[in-house]
Prior knowledge:
With about 110 residues, the protein is an all-beta fold.
Amino acid sequence: QVQLVESGGGLVQPGGSLRLSCAASRSVRSISNMAWYRQTPGKQRELVASISSGGSTVYTDSVKGRFTISRDNAKNTLYLQMNNLKPEDTAVYYCNALPSRWSWGQGTQVTVSS
């Protein structure tokens, strides 16, 4: 089992930026695909972005060109750089493998509002 701790969320105005981090309790180097997900009240958790062990990335259409996922295997950390944020990006953001295999962390709240 791996414990995941997300951080970096906050309140930001539309057009602003945030960088999320996800620290894993042990090495995830062997995990082929890691991902960021997000969830809003009353909705299912959705996949936002994923990254393979080789660095290949996939993004949901709504964030393409604005979000960048990256991983630092030496630090057991996953990142999500979010630029040009929009109100519809407001959600709790989580990280996990893809497909998810560990218990979900507490997530980090991102609120985009003027």
